[in-house]
Amino acid sequence: MQPIHLAWVDYSILLAYTVFVIGIGFALRRYMKTSADFFLSGRSIPAWVTGLAFMAANLGALELVGMSASGAKYGIATAHFYWVGAIPAMVFLAVFMMPFYYGSKARSVPEYLKLRFDERVRCLNSLTFAVMTVFASGISMNALAKLLHLLLGWNYHASLWICSAVVLVYVLKGGLTSAIYTEVLQFFMIVLGFAPVVFLGLKDMGGWDAVKGKLVDVAHHPAAFYLNDKTFQSDAWTSAWKPLLGGPSANPMGVDVFAIVFGLGFVLSFGYWCTNFLVVQRAMAAKDMTAARRTPLIAAIPKMIFPVLVILPGIIAISLAASPNKDYRLPLRSIMPGAYAPALADIKAANPGQIDAALAAVSKDIDLKVDKTKFSALVADVNAKAMTEDQIKERLQDTVAENDYDSIILSLVKRYCPSGLLGLALTALLASFMSGMAGNVTAFNTVWTYDLYQAYLAPNRTDRHYFLMGQSITVVGILLSIACAYFASHYSNAMDIVQLVFGFVNAPLFATFLLGMFWARATGTGAFLGLLGGTATSAIFHALTIASGNHPGIKGGYLWVAQTFPSEMAQNFWLATFAFTVCFVLTLVISLVTSRTKSDEELKGLVYSMTPKLKDGDQPWLLRPAVLGTLLLIGCVILNVIFW
Amino acid sequence: MGLDIRWPIGIMFSLLGALLLIFGAATSSDTEMYRHSLGININVIWGVLLLLFGGAMLLGAILGRKQPPKS
Description:
By secondary structure, chain A is mainly alpha-helical. Chain A has helices at residues 8-28, 35-40, 47-59, 63-74, 80-83, 87-103, 109-116, 119-152, 156-205, 208-220, 242-245, 257-273, 277-284, 289-305, 307-310, 312-321, 340-349, 355-366, 372-384, 389-399, 408-416, 421-457, 463-490, 492-506, 509-518, 524-544, 568-593, 625-642, and strands at 545-547, 563-565. A two-stranded parallel sheet of chain A has the order 1-2. By secondary structure, chain B is mostly helical. Chain B has helices at 6-26, 42-66. Chains A and B meet through helix 1 and helix 9 of A and helix 1 and helix 2 of B.
């Protein structure tokens, strides 16, 4: 990809944004007096602000890039990550779980676990969570710095350190409030920066119906776009549910309805939205119980329509690629500079009569799939006429038959944005990464200070002490994130393992919270052993299963292949389902055979049956959480029916 | 917290809107550049939209200031 040239107006927009987020940090500095101000925003923020921050904190996790990639790969079915995999869980959090998180006066999710169960469960949860947030922000910052390097030709190290420094300054000055306020700013930046790109893309294609028409061609010949080796029914990219009913082989995701509804919609979705402190922390900062419960509901409204902004670009890209007159191709994966030399040697030595052998050799050299037709033409040309090395290199890159899905969103920004709008779109991209980092860092410093430092290392110090600790650990957290970013850039395979392990830990988590909040009999020992057992189940499940097309190893099946799934996504959903079930059953059984350590009185405010019911009678009828939640779910059903 | 977030959002988007609008108006004859955006001067259109959004936020902040502070 050729670096894009930015005009002064683009730099001005970037600069203005940076000045404003740092300015917010400084403006809030004078309100930071106690540790509660720094970590909990003094519980003083209105619901619409915490709601949008709730949404934006999750946005950073490579969502813009990743969801447009999935939009191209899987079509409208990607929206299941929103309408099945987010909204119901957000409604559940607001209506049923928030009263216990907020009402228990716990300052973090791990602290709730301590109040409800015991120190072991808290320790396990806070340790894994703290490490996970650092890695998550490191991965995201590595992606950002790489992107700025590729896209704008900026220096990788400078991009990484400068972006991290900006986040550091505003989090250090204004704590959680600063992170939440800038997340709201970033939310609007992302929406207003990407909406014109989607608008121009749709206009270019001639509207939604024209896009859908092209997707029929894509479904019939996905191999022509290097998407998939199979062919599908006409509606595989344009319907969300119908292709799933035909079983895993009938849709590009390779999943069935059960895996989507139970694996994604219940286990993974509730496990993330209802237990992850990164998002729950935003709701806990709300000014009162009513605002705390409204937070996820307010977040659910933009979440529901966000597929237009993040999935649609991928769908537009693939429909553009299917329109020959639009002169657009999905970006191809780049050949590593070091791989050219052996590949060039193999091409020059290739015998046109044995093209398959030559193709296999070159494909191995560059570690990418190669298009046979283009490759044969290249070998014929190399033999027929004198070509310079640069010409061969260029042609070789063109024979690559693997898409670089993560670059799709940028290829559209490049295609449609003149100077001015370009600056706005790039700033939006930058904002999405920064809000992700700030979200992780604020969750990390709170869990470290309250759940690890205060709990185990230095209890009973002054509030000032913990406040200063929070500021120092923010610096440490950012430095650790930068270290993780470098680690990710050098050892991307090791990073895959790290993410895999976190997947194992997260999969069973919701079972622990579900039993903890709604069953007074659940004991600390049951919860602790259940969690460990669930995590072990994930690891064993992964070691025994594999997705078709993958080789045993990091992708699973390294002990023995007991089951082959049609896709990695299916493997992942089933893994979560198994881990959840084992954790649930283990916690249940062990709780029944161990004795309770918490009295009914101690469980007041922590468990459903021991807590007086909240009265919503004083709120306007329409704004009561149950009513609002029901309306959101109805909206969700309507969307699913429209895109059935 | 003492700061109403609508102020910085309103000011920033009004500024960005004005910047895009002025830049768009100044470059409106540059048909080569606007070939990207299908011949539409998207900078002017989006500049106006950002100005409207920023203005609405500022209006909210001004109206909110006149109310007695809620506890």
